[in-house]
Recover the amino acids of this structure.
């Protein structure tokens, strides 16, 4: 907890440049409080320096994110620009709810991508399994009273199922690449994804 | 108030990881605004997306600079109509879900008890509509060529499989044949990836209306 306080007070001081140049930078950029502070400054004071810190850290990562979705350099940077225009404009909405800054920026960037695909008539790419499921399942819907307990769902999955979700859905590896990475068969990858989904459905229904 | 009809966890996962088309994605967001459990799973997955973003390697920007970004922001702030049609659709749908109504709704009445509004957020692969049934209105039996996702925004309707209330997520496939009836005045968002087809006696007439 003391670390967090230290970060906040260093950010609140006017010597932000000193902090950036110090060896503590990598610790800072992995701290959510650091980024919250930047967004609060944007929301309250239209602080361009705080905005620049966010831009410099996240835009090269967003570039990688968009390139992975087979967008060109020009398209990727166009969407990065749109993402940061929204960050600037809607920082006050974030301020009301707080949460993880990386999550917030991710959801904005993801939605810009969806909008771009829609406008350009491009199909959203789905993972292999999803397409199969649409063919075999009789409605991707279930009917139940839901689990209202507070503990998080994903950490309750076996480690190997969390890992496969991470690789297939968020690192967006193909099933084959995920299989190679983990040194398991393609069938095992598909089996683990399926088990993870089944377990999550059960957890959401309160274990039934 | 909690819902009884939910999207499958795989649909929530696809929404979080950006693999649902915009309008289907929007339907999940609407459901999650009313359903705490689905919201929780959606948020957990989105957090994964954020963590993954934060850990990605850097790719250098080629043309975009910070000062160019600021200039662009300066330009767009002059232009208050910068919001896109998607946001307008989202705002209208959220208003109906949270407040039961929205301004500027221009209903097209097809019968005395049934109205609809085509939505602009659709893309070529989907058709999205707001549908209004007055209490007691029975939609003639129909099937779907493709899939139909319905989110109840206000009121309730029922069919052979159950009763659907505010926030409920209803997914019908081409195998389902149903004739929904409005339990109260009811407003729904309906998304189809192929037009629905009426199969009863008045089917041909209604099919004509739906064009």
């Amino acid at each position: 907890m003391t670390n967090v306080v230290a970060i906040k007070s260093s950010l609140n001081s006017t010597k932000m440049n000193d902090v950036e140049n110090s060896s503590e930078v990598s610790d800072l950029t992995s701290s959510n409080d650091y980024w919250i502070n930047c967004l609060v400054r944007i929301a309250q004071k239209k602080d361009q320096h705080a905005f620049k810190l966010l831009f410099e850290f996240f835009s090269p990562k967003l570039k990688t994110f968009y390139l992975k979705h087979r967008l060109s350099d020009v398209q990727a940077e166009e969407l990065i620009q749109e993402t940061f225009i929204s960050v600037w404009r809607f920082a006050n909405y974030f301020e009301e709810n707080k949460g993880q800054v990386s999550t917030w920026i991710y959801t904005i960037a993801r939605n810009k991508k969806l909008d771009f695909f829609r406008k350009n008539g491009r199909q959203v790419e789905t993972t292999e399994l999803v397409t199969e499921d649409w063919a075999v399942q009789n409605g991707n819907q279930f009917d139940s009273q839901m689990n209202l307990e507070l503990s998080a769902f994903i950490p309750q999955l076996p480690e190997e199922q969390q890992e496969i979700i991470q690789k297939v859905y968020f690192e967006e590896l193909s099933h084959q690449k995920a299989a190679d990475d983990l040194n398991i068969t393609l069938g095992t990858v598909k089996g683990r994804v399926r088990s993870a989904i089944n377990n999550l459905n059960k957890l959401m229904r309160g274990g039934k | 108030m909690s819902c009884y009809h939910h999207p499958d966890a795989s649909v929530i996962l696809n929404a979080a990881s950006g693999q649902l088309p915009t309008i289907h994605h929007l339907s999940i967001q609407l459901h999650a605004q009313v359903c705490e459990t689905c919201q929780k799973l959606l948020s957990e997955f989105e957090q994964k997306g954020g963590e993954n973003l934060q850990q990605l390697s850097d790719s250098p920007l080629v043309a975009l600079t910070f000062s160019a970004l600021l200039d662009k922001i300066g330009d767009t702030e002059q232009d208050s109509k910068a919001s896109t049609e998607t946001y307008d659709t989202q705002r209208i749908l959220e208003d109906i879900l949270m407040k039961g109504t929205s301004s500027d709704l221009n209903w097209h009445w097809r019968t005395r008890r049934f109205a609809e509004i085509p939505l602009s957020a659709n893309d070529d692969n989907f058709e999205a509509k707001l549908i209004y049934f007055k209490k007691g209105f029975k939609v003639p039996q129909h099937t779907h060529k493709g899939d139909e996702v319905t989110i109840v925004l206000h009121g309730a309707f029922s069919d052979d499989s159950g009763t659907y209330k505010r926030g409920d997520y209803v997914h019908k496939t081409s195998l389902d044949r149903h004739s929904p009836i409005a339990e109260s005045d009811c407003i729904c968002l309906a998304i189809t990836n192929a037009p629905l087809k009426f199969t009863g006696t008045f089917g041909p007439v209604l099919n004509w209306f739906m064009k």
